[in-house]
Design brief:
Structural class of chain A: mainly beta
Order of helices and strands of chain B: HH
Oligomer: heterodimer
CATH architecture of chain A: Beta Barrel
CATH class of chain A: Mainly Beta
Order of helices and strands of chain A: HHEEEEEEEEEEEEEEEEEEEE
Number of strands of chain B: 0
Shape of chain B: flat
Low-confidence stretches of chain B: none
Distance between the termini of chain A: 35 Å
Number of strands of chain A: 20
Structural class of chain B: mainly alpha
Low-confidence stretches of chain A: 1-49
Radius of gyration of chain A: 23 Å
Largest sheet of chain A: 16 strands, antiparallel, barrel
Mean pLDDT of chain B: 78
Mean pLDDT of chain A: 88
Radius of gyration of chain B: 17 Å
Strand order of the largest sheet of chain A: 1-2-3-6-7-8-9-10-11-14-15-16-17-18-19-20
Shape of chain A: globular
Largest sheet of chain B: none
Number of domains of chain A: 1
Number of helices of chain A: 2
Number of helices of chain B: 2
Helix content of chain B: 40-55%
Helix content of chain A: under 10%
Amino acid sequence: MPPQPVSAGAAVGVTSPKEAAGPTRTISTHLAALTAAAMALPGVHARAAEPGLNPFTVDASHLEYFESGNRMRVRVNQATAIAPVGDNVQLLADGLQDVISGASPIFNSPGPGGQPQQVLTGASVNDRRNAGDIGASVFWNDNQVTLRQGWSAENDYRSIWTSIEGRRFLNQKDTVLAAGFAFNDDGVSTHDAPDDFHTRIKRDYFLGVTQIINERSLIELSLRYSYSNGYLSDPYKLVFVQSTGELPDARPSQRRQIALTGKYLLYIPPIDSALQVIQSFSTDNWGINAGALEVQMKKELPGEWLVNAGGRLYSQSSADFYQPLFQTPPSDGLHTSDYRLAGFGSASWLLGVTKQLTPNFSLQFSGERTYRRYALRSGGSGFDGDNYIWSFYLVTLQAQF
Amino acid sequence: MRMARFGLGSALVLIATLGGCAAVPPWERGTLAKPVMSVDPPTQEQQQKLRTYGAKEGGAAATGVGGGGCGCN
């Protein structure tokens, strides 16, 4: 599974504790306005400042993920803590546990009329993943640097990763530049041979800029290049070749991906709401071209409620070495029937509700339901038998002191 | 070559974004401070969303760096 970004968004403006603690608690209305303005950077919730300008924060969440047809089910418990150390340093710690069960597609076999039909594992998948990371952010002048070190372990997959991300605030914080690098050292094995790990290395390079356009809108653009090498196949997947029978999934040993993501936020005074548009494009040397468009409306309601609702469309072409069924083994030895590398698209609805319970506690619910459809592909091959629906619901309690 | 063109074009868009925007003084950023104007959802929600997309889709998004993988199917 691809990495979980430790830093959401590219160059989200983050106010340094020192700066946020600037001209506070004065009797000057003008200075108070300046203080509010210092917090008025993209990505900073105004309510985050209420308990203190550099608060101790704890987030605890529970997620339920499930797929149609009694396929995969994942339950995730996660806790994150951010502790200030003086005015210029934050320490970060994060831990989670996944409990995974259910059935997963293995390969496609020829069905009636030679049409492919999906073959599942049965309800045999049962795994646990423990993951965590620690880190620190340092702020000085108009700069921020965050360093994180993480681990992830399950029976058949282990990962050690390091990331560094820097931000620089320019033009009175009209502009935020971000750059980052991450190194992932993963090991892949199987339940049948749990100690036989194959190495998978990934490097991520990241650039981003957030720009305030005017007093009611802003834009964020991010670019990421990823290079992976090593064992990139899925040890649990097979392909069906008419002439020889089943063969193990075999993918190239290198993958280069480039992704561009743009986010646009516009506040609309007549309806006292914000419109958010997120668009991503990516391409890679496996032949997968993908695009996603997400549109959401966000609105504050009386009583410290915040609701957001919208939709997401996604589409990709298939990998060059993907086919639902193979007649003969490809001459280059590369072949997959993994439904995630097929041509397909999806349509989703998104919903979120946040309630500020007290100045120190907030409760958040978010949900998403996605309909994967072969008909929404942007190119390449696939088949309708891979269609399914997945959903997740997440509840998060946040405390700030 | 296609990837190089994509990357170069994207970098040019990033650079172009730096220009053409009028400066907004800090005291006029009250609207931008509203919770609805937050660029990203809370961190854990963002992590779980991107993790799910990463496990179920073959494409990628430019959403920061770092994080540990897993063998999710």
